Amino acid sequence: MNILPRSIKAFQRIGEENALTVLARSVELAAQGRDIINLGVGQPDFNTPEHIVEAAVKALRDGHHGYTPYNGILPLREAVARRTLFTTGTEISPDNVMIMPGGKVTMFAAIMMMGEPGGEILYPDPGFPIYRSMIEFSGAKPVPVPITHANNFSFNAEQTLSQINENTRLVIINSPANPSGGVAPRGEIAALVKGLESLPHVAILSDEIYDTIIYDGHKHVSLLEFPSIRDQLIVLNGWSKTWAMTGWRLGWSVWPDHLCDDIRKLALNGWSCVNASAQYAGIAAIDGPQDDVQSMLAAFDHRRGRIVELLNRLPGITCSIPKGAFYVFPDIRQTGWKARELASRLLEESGVAIVGGPDFGILGEGNVRLSYANSIENIERAVGRIGKFLSR
Ligand code: PLP
What is the dihedral of CA 17, 22, 27, 30, to 10 degrees? Predict the structure, then answer.
């Protein structure tokens, strides 16, 4: 008999992140000599700014080779606190900041901390697929909160609050959002906060990983701006998207006082600490010049306009302009294709990698996600190929 993990049922409930599966298939096809344009994966196509790389190299040369405190080095946690004050106007203590090996690990930690059989966790649908996967793993019941085009790809506060009951343990929100690029308006966030402040048994995970990637002069609204829910609130953020550092595996989160010991213990047991040189790079990212971040943002903004314009010219496709992140989530229902089938056929036959909406939840059917973290030239070639495919 094979050795089985003890909680085999829980492991069978773990899902996948199909954007990464699409990436793997794209690499495979490219290795066979195919010309693949990847609009599937959600990561900036820019290199990490040079001064950040240099700070990591210097840290290694200076001998930062050992373990660090498991919640992260103090100067980095202080830098996160400074940035939080700058971006949200909210003072936080470096003691409430945890340095994590990427944004995803905060998601894992918060969901495993709050989720248990009998409990319920609300999450956005369509949304980042790992939310639901980890909720299932924890044994809690996943309760999808609809994110609809009709609601500008935001949650509706009243509806979200109506889905909460005495078993609800955690509410996950994500703005700017993956996969839709939706940005929740301040009024909606304030209404949700108003409801949640009288439900102290419900924790909140606010995934703010795309906080910088927001357009048209909109300002990101952080849940940290609402002191009344601070005891319930876990904020997920990190370096991956803003500073083009997905491969560095560096993230941060902000935790309420009463959960700090638990998360520190989880870190101690799970990963000891984050790579020391990456932590020094993280300080340089926050404290150094932000010109590269501004240039990346300008490039994303330009590509956003172009991809929306090109997609709307295609038969059967309707694409609204997203307010944040670097994804478009067009409606493809009029093409007659099912989203996953279209994505798979486009990759195999036309060499364009995109992700089907259902990979982000049941409510994603009828849409596909395209990442415009790619050059204008590739975006134009990719949409050209999609057009040819659709008119066959
Ligand atoms: N949250 C959302 C909404 C994301 O889209 C992603 C990555 O795509 C993450 C979190 C994870 O970020 P990281 O790469 O830092 O783990």
Answer: -170
